[in-house]
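Section 3.1: Structural characterization of target chains.
Under the original work plan, the team committed to producing a structural model for every single-chain target entering the pipeline before any wet-lab resources were allocated. The record below documents one such target. The sequence was received from the expression subgroup and is listed exactly as submitted; it comprises 114 residues.
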Amino acid sequence: LLTTPWLPGAFVFVLLFGLGSGLTSIVGGTLPLELFGREGYGARLGWASAARQFTSAFAPFALAFMMARASVANSLWVLVVVAASGVIAFLAIVLLRRRGRVAFAIGGNPEEAA
C-alpha cells in the first residue's frame, strides 16, 4: 500500500507474491502430513483443498463488494489484516507443534506428543 506509485515497490510486491505462492504449494502438501501423519492424509488434504478452492473462487467477489461499499484503501487494509491473521495462525501452529500439543489435541497420545 505504501509503495503503490513506486516501481521498485511493484518489484517487491511481485517477489513477495511469488514467494508466497511457492510456499503455499509446498506447505499445503506437507503441513497436513507433518501435523496429522499418514493416516487419513488424502481426506484431510481434500478438505483443505476444497476450502482453498472455495476461498479462491469467492475472494474476488468479496473484494469487489468491499471496494464498492468502502474505499479501495480500506479494502486493501482489510486484506492486510486477514493476511497478518494467517501469518499469526501459522506461527501458532509452529509454536504448538514445538510444544507437542497438536498431536494430543487431535486425539493422540500425550506421551507421543513430546
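The mean pLDDT is 81.
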